[in-house]
C-alpha cells in the first residue's frame, strides 16, 4: 500500500490506525450495523462441518472401543460437503428467509490483524479457507456403520426449533 500511495510504511500504519480509532469506516457504512453473515476468503470452497452432538457421541464411541486406541480418526460429517454459499442457501430454506452474507477478503484480515490481537491469531487458520476442506470419514463409517450422522438440514431444523421454543 505504501508503494501504491508513494509514502513510507509508517504513514500507512498511522493512517489505518486513525481510520479504526475514529470509526471512519462506520461513518461511511462500509459494514452495516445490522448483523450479516461473514464468510472468510471464499464462499465457493467445499467444507466439512461437524455437528457438535455427533462429535461428542463419536468421540465417546471411539474412546470406548479398545481396537480404536492409538489410531487417527476423522469424526463423521454430513457427506454433502457444501460450499459456504450452499450452506447459507440451505439455512435460508430452513429459516424461510434469504440470509445475506459477505465474503471477507484476506487483505481485510491482514489489515485488522495490525490492530486486533484476536484477528492476528486467526491468520494461521486462513489457509484452510483458501482450499476445499473435506474430511475423509470413511474409516469411521466403516468401523461404526450403525452411527447415524446428522445431516446439515436436520441440524439446522433442530436449532431453528429450539430457538422457536425459547421465544414462546
Outline the structure in words:
This protein is mainly α and 168 residues long. It has 9 helices and 2 strands; from the N terminus they run H-H-H-E-H-H-E-H-H-H-H. It has helices at residues 2-5, 9-21, 24-27, 52-63, 84-95, 106-113, 117-122, 138-143, 152-167, and strands spanning 37-40, 101-104. The chain has a two-stranded parallel sheet with strand order 1-2. The longest helix has 16 residues, at 152-167. It starts with a helix and ends with a helix. The relative contact order is 0.16. The model is unreliable at 24-34 (pLDDT under 50).
β content, as a range?
A: under 5%
- Helix percent reads 40-55%
Which residues form runs of ≥5 with pLDDT under 50?
Answer: 24-34
Rg, alpha carbons: 21 Å
Overall number of strands:
2
Amino acid at each position: 500500500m505504501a508503494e501504491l500511495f508513494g509514502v513510507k510504511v509508517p504513514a500507512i500504519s498511522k493512517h489505518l490506525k486513525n481510520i479504526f480509532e475514529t470509526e471512519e469506516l462506520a461513518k461511511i457504512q462500509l459494514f452495516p450495523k445490522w448483523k450479516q453473515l461473514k464468510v472468510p476468503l471464499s464462499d465457493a470452497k467445499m467444507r466439512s462441518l461437524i455437528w457438535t452432538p455427533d462429535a461428542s457421541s463419536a468421540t465417546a464411541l471411539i474412546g470406548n472401543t479398545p481396537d480404536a486406541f492409538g489410531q487417527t480418526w476423522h469424526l463423521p460429517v454430513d457427506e454433502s460437503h457444501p460450499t459456504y454459499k450452499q450452506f447459507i442457501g440451505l439455512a435460508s430454506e430452513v429459516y424461510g428467509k434469504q440470509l445475506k452474507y459477505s465474503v471477507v477478503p484476506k487483505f481485510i484480515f491482514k489489515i485488522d490483524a495490525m490492530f486486533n490481537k484476536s484477528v492476528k491469531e486467526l491468520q494461521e487458520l486462513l489457509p484452510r479457507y483458501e482450499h476445499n476442506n473435506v474430511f475423509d470419514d470413511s474409516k469411521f463409517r466403516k468401523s461404526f456403520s450403525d452411527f447415524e450422522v446428522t445431516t446439515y438440514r436436520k441440524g439446522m431444523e433442530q436449532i431453528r426449533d429450539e430457538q422457536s421454543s425459547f421465544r414462546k
